[in-house]
């Protein structure tokens, strides 16, 4: 898979992953799909040059983005009370320009990486998707869920950690798509508290 390097605001880098498929047609309120994605058939049907350029720019904004450097955190993640089995995790986040900025979304994912490593996990990769709001079904949309499943398999990860609070139905749907365990930010924080309690009792 060929990656394109894209500079980050903090001088780190992340890459756009190749699209294996696109989300379904827009639903207006984003019942899971980006409202700016078009498929190859639509493009081949005669979109003029300006439309093609607009399509490319819009789709690029909705691709999954790798956030580099998440596995390189040091002092903040070094704790003595790690007693759980180390897990290999992939971090996933969704951000909307109406709510936050890309820089803040990246910083939030780095904070999640620190939490995950504090809980005893090995962070394999971090991915961000820009969309107007999370998908009600799978959080990222069915097409992006399949892309994430491919990344999870490639990294031999056994857990996806989502930088948000998931509904039970979203968690199950993403688990079905990726074939690994899915937890959210709150679950990671609770796990850290539980480890603290166990350490103090011991």
Shape: globular
- Roughly how much helix do the residues carry, as a percent range? 25-40%
- Got a strand count? 7
Kindly, what is the distance between the CA atoms of the first and last residues, rounded to a whole number of angstroms? 47 Å
Q: What name does the CATH topology of the domain at 64-201 carry?
A: Rossmann fold
Q: Helix and strand succession?
A: EEHHEEHEHEHEH
By CATH's scheme, which homologous superfamily of the domain at 64-201 applies?
A: GTPase HflX, N-terminal domain
CATH architecture of the domain at 64-201: 3-Layer(aba) Sandwich
Low-confidence stretches: 1-9, 11-47, 72-85
Share of β-strand residues? 15-25%
Q: Determine and state the CATH class of the domain at 64-201.
A: Alpha Beta
Described by strand count, sense and barrel closure, the largest sheet is: 5 strands, mixed
**SS class:** alpha/beta
Number of helices: 6
Task: Compute the average pLDDT.
Answer: 73
